[in-house]
Design goal:
CATH class of the largest domain in chain B: Alpha Beta
Number of helices of chain B: 13
Low-confidence stretches of chain B: 1-14, 432-436
Shape of chain B: globular
Number of domains of chain A: 2
Number of strands of chain A: 0
Strand content of chain B: 15-25%
Distance between the termini of chain A: 48 Å
CATH topology of the largest domain in chain B: Chloramphenicol Acetyltransferase
Strand order of the largest sheet of chain B: 12-11-13-15-16-10-17
Oligomer: heterodimer
CATH architecture of the largest domain in chain B: 2-Layer Sandwich
Largest interface: A-B, 24 and 44 residues
CATH superfamily of the largest domain in chain B: Nonribosomal peptide synthetase, condensation domain
Strand content of chain A: under 5%
Distance between the termini of chain B: 49 Å
Order of helices and strands of chain A: HHHHHH
Order of helices and strands of chain B: EEHEHEEEEEHHEHEHHEEHHHHEEEEHEH
Helix content of chain A: over 70%
Number of helices of chain A: 6
């Protein structure tokens, strides 16, 4: 006999499909209850944003379980979008830009800095994510320059943190970044 | 012993990972591949004894020390994917799924090949981005040789195999050899696409037709054709009789035949270096096998010349080397390539790849019974065929996602009719599915 007997033809991630179906059903139920009871407050949207956030993180973790730095970037982007959506849904007051986003960026920079320190010999693995984080971290600075936000305290701190992180990282691992850029941008 | 020409620069204080660009053919595979289009092929060796998992694991690790170029994973850049040294350990597994399954880099420790075993058989599944069938065969042979040496140390303790030197490199031989000024020769006629009920996603039926090589050669000699021409003609005729006529096909039947470019150009690369010719069979009202064989012979004669091969190869290289194509970001390339591949694949009815004779060192022959190759079929090319010969056996393999097995059956009957001894082995996939 040359081949094993295979009884389970691939079920296309049945569990994921089932959970996705349950999530959609919960979302529809929440919207219905929201519309039938307190339709002037869109609380169901908050819950749905949370569900989408969880799915994004979960699916990414399942399919990209390689590099911890990529998770930091994903969490930074996903949490920032989630807070902006929450701020918008409950009547935009701008706290997502003036408070939440700078805190997220500071946390991400500190995390990446710690990762760099504890695994310097493997830093080449994080170089591209440091570059992406640096670009993302410039968003609060752009908002300050465009006069798009009034309270600039935290945004300034986050920008300083990002610049400081970038300078330290370039000092410690500048060659790795150059090498990584060559790899990633070769044509 | 195999020596790698381009030794990696290893920094002892902080190890930088070696990396290299994908060769011109390989560029397309990570972009276009998916579960439905795995671009994976398998080479298997059937031994005369049951495979020992622990010994095989050691043999694979040993073979990887020789073939360091295969110790890589694919990474995405901004414009192209590239290969980077893989520091993780390779893991072999017991065969538990259909052959040529999509190799997900995220769940295979990043490796672009997979070694599995079942009873007496060692399988090497290879993602085409890594290498082509000829180079993969060298790797499988190294695994099998190492396995036999580890399993029978007394017999092979003084082996002189290690003294045999084969030098290879990882250059992109397409770029080195193509001609910028040569114009392409691609056929603009769409091909007949095989029809019929498909197996569920992931399932592949495998039919090996084990042919007596001496008898086959004798028949080919009588008909004044090569083995590849003869088998291509039988395949085309089987398709015509069992699928084309049944579904009232109108387009021409086109069989794609990969060509090993190392025979035409000076190259020792371990990366992909192949091109292809296409045998076009224009359908007439009353088709005979002799007519199809003549058509196939004519196509081979016209296309299997250095000039024509250069035209096909150069056209493909020029496309991949086009500055406009190069500077499109990878995420956009993925969209364009996936869309264009749906269309490109409509120009081939089926593929038949003949690896030719597989040479094995004398002392090892008694431990190896059969060697065969399989290519992953996909939603457009629903049947793909491959063959190779070892000793007096040629194993012609059908891999199919069609439930209907009449093409395979007709192929067998035609060989029998020619007076050639044929034995059939299969993975019995249709029986299993019907039981479910």
């Amino acid at each position: 006999m040359l081949y094993p007997k295979i009884n389970n033809v691939e079920k296309n991630h049945f569990t994921i499909r089932l959970l996705l179906g349950i999530s959609i059903a919960i979302s529809i139920i929440l919207i219905t209850i929201n519309l039938l009871t307190t339709h002037n407050v869109r609380w169901a949207m908050l819950a749905i944003c949370g569900i989408v956030y969880i799915w994004t993180i979960t699916l990414y973790s399942i399919y990209h379980n390689i590099n911890i730095a990529s998770h930091v970037i994903l969490q930074t982007i996903a949490t920032a979008i989630l807070t902006i959506l929450i701020d918008t849904i409950i009547g935009f007051r701008g706290w997502s830009f003036t408070i939440a986003m700078p805190i997220i960026i500071i946390t991400a920079n500190v995390t990446m800095f710690i990762l760099t320190l504890v695994s310097r010999k493997k830093y080449y693995k994080y170089a591209i994510y440091q570059i992406i984080l640096f670009i993302l971290s410039m968003v609060p600075m752009i908002l300050i320059f465009c006069n798009a936000i009034d309270k600039i305290g935290l945004s300034l701190i986050s920008t300083i943190c990002s610049l400081a992180n970038a300078v330290i990282v370039i000092f410690l691992c500048g060659n790795d970044i150059e090498e990584e850029l060559k790899r990633r941008f070769h044509i | 012993m195999y020596l790698r020409k381009e030794e990696s620069q290893i920094n002892n204080t902080r190890k930088k990972l070696d990396w290299r660009k994908l060769d011109n053919s390989a560029k397309i595979f990570p972009i276009a591949s998916s579960k439905k289009f795995s671009t994976v092929f398998r080479i298997s060796a059937v031994l005369s004894e049951k495979v020992d998992e622990i010994v095989l694991q050691k043999a694979v690790e040993k073979a990887l020390e020789v073939f360091k170029s295969f110790k890589v994973r694919v990474k995405s850049g901004f414009f192209w994917y590239y290969l980077e040294e893989n520091t993780k350990n390779v893991r072999i597994e017991k065969e538990n799924y259909y052959p040529c399954k999509y190799i997900d880099p995220n769940i295979n420790a990043g490796y672009l090949f997979k070694v599995t075993y079942f009873e007496n058989k060692i399988n090497l599944d290879v993602f085409h981005a890594l290498t082509d069938g000829n180079s993969a065969m060298h790797f499988l042979k190294e695994i099998v040789y190492s396995y036999i040496e580890l399993k029978h140390p007394k017999e092979f303790y003084n082996t002189n195999r290690k003294e045999r030197k084969v030098i290879y490199n990882t250059e992109d031989s397409y770029i080195k050899n193509y001609n910028k000024k040569t114009k392409g020769n691609a056929s603009k006629q769409k091909a007949y696409i095989l029809r019929g009920r498909k197996l569920p996603l992931g399932a592949i039926s495998v039919t090996h037709e084990i042919i007596d090589l001496n008898m086959l050669k004798q028949i080919c000699k009588e008909r004044n054709c090569t083995v590849t021409q003869f088998l291509t003609a039988i395949l085309a005729y089987s398709i015509y009789e069992e699928n084309y006529k049944k579904y009232n096909g109108r387009k021409i039947i086109k069989i794609c035949i990969p060509v090993n470019l190392k025979k035409y150009f000076d190259s020792i690369t371990i990366s992909n270096f192949f091109s292809y010719i296409t045998a076009k069979i224009h359908i007439q009202e009353k088709m005979s096998f002799d007519y199809i064989l003549k058509e196939v012979q004519k196509e081979f004669k016209e296309q299997l010349t250095p000039e024509e091969i250069m035209k096909t190869m150069s056209a493909n290289v020029k496309l991949g080397n086009n500055l406009f194509v190069k500077i499109i970001p990878l995420f956009l390339k993925k969209i364009f390539v996936k869309l264009s591949y749906i269309e490109i694949r409509k120009y081939t009815t089926s593929t038949f790849s003949n690896l030719g004779r597989i040479g094995i060192i004398g002392d090892y022959k008694k431990y190896i019974e059969e060697i065969f190759i399989l290519i992953a079929p996909e939603s457009v090319e629903k049947i793909k065929c491959s063959s190779c010969s070892y000793e007096n056996k040629m194993v012609f393999t059908f891999t199919s996602i069609l439930e209907d097995k009449s093409i395979e059956k007709r192929f067998y009957e035609l060989l029998q009719k020619e007076g050639i001894n044929v034995k059939i082995e299969s993975n019995g996939v249709c029986d299993v599915i019907s039981e479910n």
